[in-house]
Design a protein that fits this description.
The chain is an alpha/beta fold. The chain has a single domain, classed as 3-Layer(aba) Sandwich (Rossmann fold), CATH 3.40.50.880. It has seven helices and twelve strands. Helix 4 packs antiparallel against helix 7.
Length: 241
């Protein structure tokens, strides 16, 4: 049975639709909370898939959140071995940092809410990702940090506010700045967990919920198809096929 090790930073930013596809593929999903788990003793090559999810901290805040160093060490060993790895939001930023790119606060403010993602110059190399962009009119964005594109990475997605929204390292690592995994029901926990951030950004929660109820179901359908293709590819890559 393949194992999908999932590193979380806050409990409400979960696997969403990706979890459904991992279960469908027969994967055993194991969770580790980055802030409390002993990541130094995790074998980086053991899981079939490594997934690092989002959170409201910066990949560069190592002094405030020392456990980030352990995540970086885990990812460094994982990527060096070219083992299947996925990062979403903070997870993507950590992959970018390990790959040698700069991660930093965005100069154009927070990207928070529902907006489209346009294809990057290399998106055509990844048909499943191209179909995701074509089939989901809008995606959820929830970040204030951004990153430079890692050297040698393929640029898959972009927005007018922040151009580096998705990248791939060959076929073994994928970084997504936006959130294709979310569900309309699951987002109710985000609105509570991120209440202070939403208030500080003067976001109307009722309107954000209304848009989520409209667009999340369309995203869920498109994302399930994308995750199915990604999980199959990642498991095949992990088996050396």
């Amino acid at each position: 049975m393949p194992k999908a090790l999932t590193i979380t930073h806050v409990p409400f930013e979960d696997l969403g639709t990706l979890g459904l596809e991992l279960e469908r593929a027969g994967a055993h999903i194991e969770f580790r909370d980055a802030s409390t788990a002993d990541l130094q003793h995790v074998n980086p090559l053991d899981p079939s898939l490594l997934i690092v999810l989002g959170g409201p901290i910066g990949a560069y805040e190592l002094e405030s959140y020392p456990f980030i160093r352990d995540e970086i060490d885990l990812l460094r060993a994982r990527l060096a071995a070219k083992r299947p790895t996925l990062g979403i939001c903070l997870g993507a930023q950590l992959i970018a940092a390990v790959a040698g790119a700069r991660v930093y606060p965005g100069a154009h403010g927070k990207e928070l809410g529902w907006a489209p993602v346009a294809a990057g110059p290399d998106a055509a190399l990844y048909p499943a990702f191209s179909r995701l962009l074509a089939n989901a009119p809008l995606f959820l964005h929830w970040h204030g940090d951004t990153f430079d594109l890692p050297k040698g990475a393929r640029h898959l997605g972009q927005t007018s506010q922040y151009p580096h929204q998705a990248f791939a390292l060959e076929n073994y690592a994928l970084g997504l700045q936006f959130h294709p995994e979310v569900t309309a029901d699951g987002l109710e926990r985000w609105y509570v967990g991120h209440a202070c951030e939403l208030a500080g950004a003067k976001i109307d929660v009722a309107e954000l919920r209304r848009r989520g109820r409209r667009w999340a179901p369309k995203l869920e359908c498109a994302a399930l198809k994308f995750w199915r293709a990604w999980v199959a590819q990642a498991l095949n890559w992990g088996n050396g096929l």
